[in-house]
Design a protein that fits this description.
alpha+beta; Immunoglobulin-like; globular; A-amylase_inhib_sf; A-amylase_inhib
Length: 112
């Protein structure tokens, strides 16, 4: 039984480690706080679910937006080209819903 456990446990641990590495690579921790501005243009729409909030830029120009949530959680400032999509965190199991989109300026190392 021990050999069977070792043979099963290793792939499971490797898969979990690989998944954690992919998550860390796709979600970088913020080094500074992004500056936020006015509400995003109406041509920028969001579609939320408990897992993700997808934002679509239906404008003719590139926009920089961030998502505002009911509990004030941090969301990155993302630059979205016309016709493109960006994915943010969803509202999760605690019901942290999106309240709107705001224009923003990407954070730079000197901001704080």
């Amino acid at each position: 039984m021990t050999n069977l456990m070792q043979r099963i446990a290793r792939p499971v641990v490797l898969a979990g480690t690989a998944a954690a590495g992919l998550l860390a690579a796709s979600v970088a921790a913020p080094s500074a706080v992004a500056t936020t501005g006015s509400p995003a243009p109406e041509c920028v729409e969001y579609f939320q679910s408990w897992r993700y909030t997808d934002v679509h830029n239906g404008c003719g120009d590139t926009v920089s937006v961030t998502v505002e949530y009911t509990n004030g959680q941090w969301a990155p400032c993302r630059v979205i080209e016309p016709g493109r999509w960006a994915t943010f965190a969803g509202y999760g199991t605690d019901g942290n819903y999106v309240t709107g989109l705001r224009t923003c300026g990407p954070a730079t190392p000197g901001d704080a």
